[in-house]
Design brief:
8 strands, three-stranded antiparallel beta sheet, 30% strand, mainly beta, single chain
């Protein structure tokens, strides 16, 4: 399958084949701490809801009943971080910055 990603400057990749990550990437905090990519240490992300699929639900064609998670897609390397707990990540404008009191 051909690679359909298109470079969009130095903030990462825009994968128009997956809904187009056209919005500006955001800063993220998790539990009051600034979040960085676990792969490349970048600090900007796109956010998408993702379905958490289970083998049993897929086997019985009940995928619609699966839970969802927040997926943070690194704007530099494209790694997807998933958060399924009650405490979901908070998104902040890169132009405004993190809220006061955010831990690094």
């Amino acid at each position: 399958m051909p690679d359909r990603r298109m470079p969009v400057g130095d903030v990462g990749w825009d994968d128009r084949g997956m809904g187009g990550l056209r919005s500006d990437p955001k800063l993220v905090t998790v539990l009051g701490r600034a979040f960085r990519c676990l792969v490349c240490d970048h600090g900007l992300f796109w956010s998408r809801q993702v379905k958490l699929s289970t083998t049993s639900a897929s086997s019985f064609d009940l995928v619609w009943g699966n839970r969802s998670a927040t997926g943070l897609i690194c704007a530099r390397c494209g790694y997807v971080h998933e958060f399924a707990g009650r405490e979901r990540p908070a998104l902040w404008s890169a132009k405004v910055g993190y809220p006061e009191g955010t831990e690094s």
